Request: fold
Amino acid sequence: MARTGVETPHVWHGEAIIADTLKRGPEVSLASTDGRWRFSRWRQFVGSYALPGLPDPLFVVQLAGKTSVRTWDRDGWSEDASYPGAATIVPATMATRWLVDGELDVVTLSIDADELRSAAVLDQFSHMRFAFNDPLGSALSRQILSELYEPESGARDIYVASLIDALKHHMMRGPRKTLATDFPTSAFSSYRIHHIMDSVRQKPEAEHNLESMAAKAGITPSHFCRVFRKATNMTPHQFVLKVRLERAEQLLSQSATPMNAIAEMLGFSSQSSFNRAFLRFAGETPSSYRNRRLA
Reply:
């Protein structure tokens, strides 16, 4: 295996064609010694572009970035858009067109078409599957990347090879016929939700939007919103606001920090929006709350 930054496309495998189209190479690229698979990370490309047909099928997982990623579908851009945690399968030799409205972070895995010999495997790579929910593919891709940024060692290389092998077989297996909600997930959901809630409590001022929280949970934004509300009786947005206002109460009662500074520290767009939110939350204005607590 080899790890590279920008790879010169002297051999026209799929990743070299992508690099030529984007006019930039992958940030990280890993290939088997026999060239039968390639794993690459691509970041910060934007715009509309046409990708020629690739020699091998391509498995794409969106790690982060905008949710306004679309593909050309017959006579216009697709109504569906990709999102963090979603996967896409691009068949071999199929030319595609893409619209990326903002920076993007994806990984790609290509497998030599000769390995896809069975009828069942060939069938699932015969047509494009755009932006389907794939928590396992996303989790495996993230774990592989975390290892690639670690110092090289024999043990690491063996572990990465096993993860790549798992992702490769996951890709070849194809999407499940049943959804994740068709079997009990309470323990998994509980762990994920509490982990995300803790991250909000640690940094309430950060931008905790629905898409980023859902990506951490490995599920779609709409499903995450349903699961979160069922577990907490509030929406993710309501929880983030609650945590920020609880922190505001601490700052108001334990410090002399100016109101406008507190509003800015906690991620409010203005002091007036902070005042309105605090009034709804505490039943009194921030200044009234501070005067009462410090009296």
User: Anything to note?
Assistant: Residues 1-11, 177-187 have pLDDT under 50 and may be disordered.
